[in-house]
Amino acid sequence: MAKTSKLSRLSGLLNMATIAIDTYNNVAHRKQNTKLSYASIAVSTFGSILDLYLAFKSPRKITKLLSLATSATAVVRNVRYLLQLRQHTKTNA
User: Fold this and answer.
1) Most buried residue, 18, 31, 49, 77, by CB count within 10 Å?
2) How confident is residue 1, by pLDDT bands cut at 50, 70 and 90?
3) DSSP readout, 52-73?
4) 68-84 pLDDT per residue, tens
5) Domain total for the chain?
6) Residue 1 forms part of a structural domain
7) Key word Transmembrane present in the record (predicted)?
């Protein structure tokens, strides 16, 4: 069995935490709790950056390329969601 590093475990934990926060916010609050939405964006962004860092430590070029694409997608998605969330809070205020 391959040995996993502490950073790799932290990355997996952050990814699971993002899913848990999003699911709870969707089920319990129907995506209306803005604090949970901001927490999800922060955890997701940090997890994406950590995944990118771990991938760049890999000797495989394909791993680096795929991780860069995945991280770019995650950052764009988080920025769009953040802008949408800010616009939504301005219209409801």
Assistant:
1) 18
2) very low
3) HHHHHTSS-HHHHHHHHHHHHH
4) 898 889 989 999 999 99
5) 1
6) no
7) yes
